[in-house]
Amino acid sequence: MEQTIPSFHHPISFFSSVSHTIYHITSLSLFQLHCHLPTHNHSKTNQILSPLFFAACLLLHLRVCWMRPLLPSFALPNPIKTPLFFSLLFHPSSAAASTLRRPTPLFLSFLPASFRPRSFSNSPPTMAIPPKLLSSSASIATTSSLGSNSVDHGLAAKLWIKFRRELHLAMYTPFLVSLASGNLKADTFRHYIAQDAHFLKAFAHAYELAEECADDDDAKLAIADLRKAVLEELKMHNSFVLDWGIDPAKEVIATSATVKYTDFLLATASGKVEGVKGPGKLATPFERTKIAAYTIAAMTPCMRLYAFLGKELQTLVDLKDGSHPYKKWIENYSCGSFQASAFQTEDLLDKLSVSLTGEELDIIEKLYHQGMKHEAEFFYAQPLDQPTVVPFAKDHNHDGGRLVIFSDFDLTCTVVDSSAILAEIAINQIARMSSAELRNTWGLLSTQYTEEYEQCIESVLPPEKVEFNYEALCKALEQLSDFERRANTRVIESGVLKGLYLEDIKRAGERLILQDGCSNFFQKINGNDKLNSTVHVLSYCWCGDLIRSAFSSGGLGVVSVHANELTFQESISTGEIVKKVESPMDKVEAFHHILKNYKDDSKNFTVYIGDSVGDLLCLLQADVGIVIGSSSSLRTVGSRFGVSFVPLFPGVLQRQRECIEGSCSMGKSLSGTLYTVSSWSEIHALILGW
């Protein structure tokens, strides 16, 4: 019986392991020194470690790009059984890699471009990409107003970006939406001001405790300045008390949400942090400084959130005529002095965190996250006695109407198009054809698809923009439907999907990476027993089993999947596709067929979430159509046919302004308006709220 030799006994595998070890040691050393040394010492650090790091990266490049053909099969990872990152390294020109094209990471920036693995090259992909992948221009790494992806971000900015979910939860609270739209009832604002006064007093005291713990004169001075700014803000609140007829002598009891927040701040400032000694037990000034850093970490989210909201509302709300009842509140948090205080707080957090260990930085992150959650909870706790457009879930319990959620799958829910996943399985596991032959076949299919898709899109566009006309749009997209059917027929005839194991497809689905926030949204919506809702996925995906596996393995609840299906004989694909959803027309037909099952329920409210031209008709048929990502073809086609694309938050504010007593709706079918979002966290906040 033939014996399998362990991979480290093979000379090339041994060389690979050594290069990988050297690379990790040097890169980790360089990273740690960069983190813990002052900026002016970084150049010396680079002089010491860069040559060795360069050599390690060169060895790694040899391993990845040049020695792959020499490695024995047992040294190559199975793309289905290993993380996607390793698949990208060993298959740098793969379909998945082309989907995840990104700027060169810092750890490879030391290398000349010619020495970098192709998966991190800025040059265009040169290998075969499955049909439908190139045509979809949805952005995987969407940009938002929260910040760019610059590597120069300090700790505070990185945490702000990381916890944008809590930002969106705060933005889409009924309280803030009503305040921004100008129709928040006065009693609710009075309640908020009274509760905020409790909070600001605790905030000022927390700054005082942090100042006592700081051992650096500059830090003490900065904290003292921030405390003075809070005391000025309290004076502004006193003017609100007079303006809004609040009795200053009347003591207002803090609500549970307010107490929870203030207790968190004061406990942190007193050193009562899990795993941390109290200030009285801290032996050295350095240990006391940690408490100052922890306190600023807990307080920074409030400053950054209010500064962001002030600027955002200043942009969206017309304050010129002076009629907005909360103009003074918006101007206070959008003014230059408050913006400066927010930046000063973030800068202070960055400086106080420089010398902290990884474990201590984890505590910083945890406290920052808690602070963000407390802010959202504080807004949600404000009592409202008026109709609001958000969240949708409040009007769809089992005694009310049904909320029907529709979603596309590829690049709406996922990071990688499912056709790329199936292509990787085929290229790496089908024995009847060589991988080179399969790649070549995929390349021909891809090139033909891309060229014809672009021609088809161009041919359906009217010469100039027209008023919204759904019927004309349907007629135009029928041409796209014919094209998609021909493309799928070519895939079947090529035989590239023949010989796939069902088990491997399901395993790939289990490991499929979903967009940030997508899993959490579906878990919450399917786990809410009080919500009368159903979820349907409408997809062009060639294999519904892949989708079902992705949802079931992620614990995302019961989802009805409407997609094409591969046919199998003894769990091996025949290469045939059972065609169910191939085109925009098929999707909208499935959409209407599903709703017919709920025809006895006159209170259905439909939401469709999509990212491509194939979703356009369903997006328009839904009561609320939400576009995620930045597909240029979707926007081009939609705009030419009179469809309006409105960022979600301004759209919500406009709808809230139009609210009248007893009637408050976000939208209606065939309005010609679609709402755009940067992430699933916005969708979560809109539909489910806190």
Automatic annotation (TrEMBL):
Please provide, in alphabetical order, the Gene Ontology terms of the cellular component aspect for this entry.
Answer: cytosol
The protein's matches in SUPFAM superfamilies, at most eight in alphabetical order, are given as: HAD-like, Heme oxygenase-like
Question: Which biological processes are named by the entry's GO terms?
Answer: thiamine metabolic process
The record's annotation in Pfam families points to: TENA_THI-4
InterPro entries reported in the protein's UniProt record: HAD-like_sf (IPR036412), HAD_sf (IPR023214), Haem_Oase-like_multi-hlx (IPR016084), Thiaminase-2/PQQC (IPR004305), Thiamine_Salvage_TenA (IPR050967)
Write down what this protein is called. Answer: Thiaminase-2/PQQC domain-containing protein
Signal sequence annotation: none
Which positions fall inside the Thiaminase-2/PQQC domain? Answer: 174-271, 292-379
Taxonomic superkingdom: Eukaryota
Task: Please give the CDD domains that the UniProt record associates with this protein.
Answer: TenA_C_AtTH2-like
